[in-house]
Design goal:
By secondary structure, the protein is α/β, with parallel strands linked by helices. It has 14 helices and 21 strands. The chain has helices at about 25-30, 50-55, 70-80, 110-120, 160-165, 210-215, 225-235, 245-250, 260-265, 270-280, 300-305, 325-345, 405-415, 455-465; strands spanning about 40-45, 60-65, 85, 95-105, 125-135, 145, 150-155, 170-175, 185-195, 195-200, 225, 285-290, 310-315, 355-365, 370-375, 390, 395, 400-405, 420-425, 440-445, 450. It has a 7-stranded mixed sheet with strand order 3-2-1-4-5-9-8. A 4-stranded parallel sheet has the order 11-12-10-13, sandwiched between helices. A 4-stranded antiparallel sheet has the order 14-15-19-18. A hairpin with a 2-residue loop joins β14 and β15 (about 370-375). α8 packs across α9 (about 260-265) and α10 packs across α11 (about 300-305). The radius of gyration is 35 Å and the shape is elongated. The N and C termini lie far apart (about 90 Å).
């Protein structure tokens, strides 16, 4: 740091020059953000004290401007690594800037509101405007003219400042140091652009996410995006989604196992795509997300929302009551329990059926998705493991297949257990109405044995043709 040319005019204070300002104490009161690798602008920089500090902290660019040529020359002498401009604030240096400082100068602006908004617009997306300014102590919402001895200047009340900054995020950081002759107390305020908030409820299923979201956010007029609903609508084609995202969700999709669909999305590296879809559905504004996300992906979701310009706020809580077993574990243990009962008593021979028996006894069509219910008993009274569907000779992949208990079938055939029913869904966009299935629908077991339509279902289809 070079020593400046001596001159009687002195405002900022340095170790070699005492000025009218308690500059070091003011620096501490400003509570400047971390400036390492950042860009810094001091509007009304005087002799560049704060620009020099920014460089000292590790700013990659520190810029100052002042209407006084004398001060700019001194600043350049003291801090040659900084950039200084002899100009007013009507024309700002090229930005954006991560931190902008306006200290003890706002009251000199002819249009203080316009200056504040111009400075905020010169901030980077995550930038902070640091204001050191006089604020009149009053309940009024007004600019108040104050006699300063040398002139009269307008200062805002806190209510007026709050009104001016209503569209932005800001925080009162505390009082600044008092200077001799101050007619109004000085305060420090940090201002930044307001990000939309994403309130994240990402706990596992059965944690009460939907109940909490419904009770908390609608009264505050904050929309709630349901992850379950969005997943279903992507599968059904009701909302557009990137093909890779849709394929990852649709693979083995079941409305009863949406947590597994979400886990597949993240396992495929498509978590950011799903986050972008949620944000798009919310219209890029404040919203609450009611959606399970695997715990090890929570940080990724928050980072993706930050990249989209959101402020993510995650709500966490513990589930009250016994924890739930995973669906796969429940299925495994239920089957084991059922087998254990069959082995407990004297062995009973299972009836051997010469051919498969069964019916498709319910078909519904909704938004291009066929929902099929039926039952089938294979050789040696084996339960169904899968179903294949053909429509007009064209094979369709079954999106979901779930076994279902059918006590009616067990009783009718005298079987040892009732696990012979099934529910399945088939994505069939070419089917406009049930009548289109007349003479076209066929269902088979993996072994190729045909499962006929029940009489009622066949009559229903013919009636719609």
């Amino acid at each position: 740091m070079k020593k400046p040319t001596p001159n009687k005019a002195q405002y900022q204070s340095f170790p070699d020059a005492t000025g009218d300002s308690r500059t070091l104490e003011k620096l501490k009161a400003l509570k400047l953000p971390n400036l390492v690798g950042r860009t810094f602008l001091d509007v009304g920089c005087n002799e560049g004290f704060f620009c020099g500090f920014a460089k000292f902290l590790g700013a990659r660019r520190a810029v100052g401007l002042d209407h006084s040529r004398l001060f700019i020359e001194r600043a350049q002498q003291r801090f040659p690594d900084c950039e200084f401009h002899h100009q007013g604030w009507d024309r700002l240096p090229e930005g954006p800037f991560d931190v902008i400082l306006l200290a003890s100068a706002l009251h000199y602006a002819e249009d203080q509101r316009a200056l504040l908004l111009r400075l905020i617009e010169s901030l980077s997306d995550d930038g902070v405007l640091v204001l050191e300014m006089g604020i009149v102590s009053s309940e009024e919402n007004a600019w108040v003219e104050v006699e300063r001895g040398i002139d009269r200047r307008s200062f805002p009340t806190m209510s007026r400042l709050r009104e001016v900054l209503d569209d932005y995020a800001w925080k009162w950081m505390g009082r600044s140091v008092t200077q001799d002759g101050d007619p109004v107390g000085r305060h420090v305020v940090h201002v930044s652009r307001r990000r939309p908030v994403a309130y994240l409820l990402m706990q596992p299923p059965a944690y009460g996410k939907s109940s909490i979201a419904a009770g908390l956010f609608p009264p505050a007029r904050i929309p709630v995006i349901s992850g379950d609903q969005q997943i279903a609508e992507i599968v059904q084609g009701k909302v557009a989604a990137p093909p890779k995202l849709r394929d990852a969700i649709a693979q083995g999709y079941s409305p009863f196992r949406i947590d597994e669909a979400v886990a597949r999305v993240f396992a495929a590296g498509l978590g950011a795509n799903l986050v972008a879809h949620w944000a798009e559905q919310a219209g890029r504004r404040d919203f609450a997300l009611d959606a399970f996300v695997p715990p090890d992906q929570h940080a990724q979701v928050e980072a993706a929302f930050v990249d989209l310009g959101y402020l993510p706020v995650q709500l966490r809580w513990d589930r009250v009551g016994p924890s739930l077993l995973p669906a796969a574990k429940i299925e495994e243990r239920a089957d084991a329990f059922y087998r254990s009962m069959g082995m407990a008593g004297a062995p009973r021979p299972s009836p051997v059926l010469p051919v498969a028996k069964g019916f498709v006894d319910r078909i519904a069509l909704e938004d291009g998705v066929l929902r099929i219910r039926g039952w089938v008993v294979g050789a040696a009274a084996s339960p169904p493991s899968a179903v294949t569907v053909r429509l007009g000779g064209k094979r369709y992949e079954v999106d979901t297949f779930e076994r279902q208990s059918r006590p009616d079938v067990q009783k009718h055939l005298g079987l040892e257990h009732a696990e012979f029913g099934f529910n399945a869904t088939v994505h069939a966009p070419d089917v406009a109405a049930l009548g289109d299935l007349a003479g076209e629908f066929e269902a088979f077991t993996p072994e190729g044995l045909r499962i006929p339509l029940s009489k009622d279902v066949a009559t229903k289809i013919r009636g719609n043709s």
